[in-house]
Amino acid sequence: MFTHRLATEADLPAIRALMDLAIAEHLKAFLDPAQVELSKSIMGLDTQLIADRTYFLVEEEANSSQKRLAGCGGWSRRATLYGGDHSTAQRNAALLDIATDAARVRAMYTHPDFARRGVGRLILDLCEGAAREAGFKAVELMATMSGEPLYRACGYHDIQRITAASKDGVDVPGVRMGKAL
Questions:
Q1: What whole-number distance in Å separates Cα of residue 91 and Cα of residue 4?
Q2: Which of 19, 25, 93, 94 is close enough to 79 for a disulfide, judged by CB 3.0 to 4.6 Å?
Q3: What pLDDT does 61 receive?
Q4: How many helices (H) and strands (E) does the chain have?
Q5: Which domains does the chain have, with CATH numbers?
Q6: Alpha-carbon dihedral of residues 52, 127, 19, 169, nearest 10 degrees?
């Protein structure tokens, strides 16, 4: 049984550990080791999402007193499309215009033990519902190659295929995707 809640600063160590594991495990089926390593330079936690109270944790109740982090992800009313605190090139804290801009779905990660069990869909539903409630009419996200099939299955369409990172002849692909709410 999964439950969800908004993340707090106290959750940061668990979130970072889950993200590191998810990046290493999920991307290796789609990218070579050098691309996975380079992905770490642009992916990760943007703590602005926690400060804005728009970042969800999905937990599995192991027993009555213990919960296990199954996934995390959030949405944003800010212009940043992707990237963690350490990837400053992609960051833009400007607020979006609800009338014309799409909210951002950000930093979605599923623990490998919970892959294909509905965690990603639950996070997307939470994010889309919160963005809709805030007045947004659409959402956008930057998909990794491992996330693209989920987003497509959930009604997202390609906006633009990009190189999300490039260094020393190594490129990391990404897909900007969107969906009307």
A1: 27
A2: 94
A3: 85
A4: 5, 7
A5: 2-139 (3.40.630.30)
A6: -100
pTM of the complete model: 0.94
Using an 8 Å Cβ cutoff, are 152 and 179 in contact? no
Q: Is 17 helix (H, G, I), strand (E, B) or coil?
A: helix
Q: What is the per-residue burial (b if ≥16 Cβ within 10 Å, else e) of 2-32?
A: eebebbeeebeeebeebbeebbebbbeebbe
What span, in angstroms and rounded, lies between the C-alpha atoms of 161 and 17?
Answer: 28
Q: How far apart are CA 146 and CA 144, in angstroms?
A: 5
pLDDT of residue 116: 94
Residue 67 has phi, psi (to 5 degrees) of -125, 150
- pLDDT tens, residue by residue, 4-42: 999 999 999 999 999 999 999 999 999 999 999 999 988
Count CB-CB contacts under 10 A for residue 51. 10
Segments of the chain with pLDDT less than 50: none
Radius of gyration of the chain (CA): 15
pLDDT at 89: 66
